[in-house]
Amino acid sequence: MLEQYDLGNLMVLDIETVPQYSSFEEVPEHFQKLWELKTQYQRKEETAREFYERAGIWAEFGKIICISVGIFAGGKKTSLRVKSFSSHDEKEILEDFSALLNSQPPTLILCAHNGKEFDFPYICRRMLINGVKIPTQLEISGRKPWEINHLDTMELWKFGDYKNYTSLSLLTAIFDIPTPKDDIDGSQVGHVYWVENDLDRISIYCEKDVIATAQLLRRYRGEELITDDFITIVGR
After folding, report:
1. Considering the entire predicted model, what is its pTM?
2. Are residues 180 and 161 in the same domain?
3. Least enclosed by CB within 10 Å: which of 1, 122, 161, 236?
């Protein structure tokens, strides 16, 4: 499976997002009303205020605080180089990430877990909001499906079955891959960011997701996992 892909022309990525404001009270009044309307069918018994801690999931009400990427390198043994773009300034993150993509071939394949439903469209929406030009590798407008070089490890696992969501945590357990959720999970990112002010901890968590997704790709291809001594975290 996936043997047709050159891992040297593939970038694994993951993003971490949080609500744009630390609390519902800080949200401008007109956006509070828009948030109530946007989430009226998802909230069930919760009020808009109570539900706001999940606002990071929506690109209209959240922001990106970290994008981590992983690049495979060949040689006698495959290695993985991981780098993070993290900041309180979302536009800075998006510009740096865009510059990285623009330095790569336009045919570069982007891969993420649930990337087609979340990471890729979220990045594009936030780029538009921040006035950052969408790089070629992310642009899908006007393209035929087979012209879009996006891989999604969750979609690949479905094999055409659209009935359920399969988490990265479950797949790493199935394939005996070290879990990326050994410190925090996605539901805690907002608290770690807004309350603990620990962006570095979030970046490490994001990097672990990238590594886990890269290892999952290796398992899909029937290949051995990349050992820790062949994984480099740039800047750490």
Report:
1. 0.94
2. yes
3. 161
Residue 205 belongs to some domain of the structure: yes
Q: What strand order describes the sheet that includes 150-152?
A: 150-152, 109-112, 10-19, 62-73, 79-86, 231-233
- The two structure tokens encoding residue 60: 């209209």
For residue 142, how many C-alpha atoms fall within 13 Å in the half-sphere facing its CB?
Answer: 2
Instruction: Answer whether 76's CB lies under 8 Å from 226's CB.
Output: no
Residues 126 and 28 both lie in one domain: no
Q: For 148-159, write each residue's pLDDT tens digit.
A: 999 999 999 999
Pair (211, 117) in one structural domain: yes
For the chain, what is the domain count? Answer: 2
**Both structure tokens of 89:** 């300034």
Nearest to 127 by CA among 167, 166, 90, 181: 90
Higher pLDDT, 91 or 77: 91
Q: Which residue do the tokens 């051995």 mark?
A: 224
47 and 73 fall within a common domain? no
Residue 116 gets which letter from DSSP? Answer: I
Q: In the block, which residue shows the tokens 């909230």?
A: 43
In this structure, are 130 and 35 located in the same domain?
Answer: no
Helix (H) or strand (E) holding 79: strand 79-86
Residue pair 2/102 in contact (Cβ under 8 Å)? The answer is: no
Quote the mean pLDDT of the chain: 93
What is the C-alpha to C-alpha distance for residues 72 and 81, in angstroms, rounded to an integer? 6
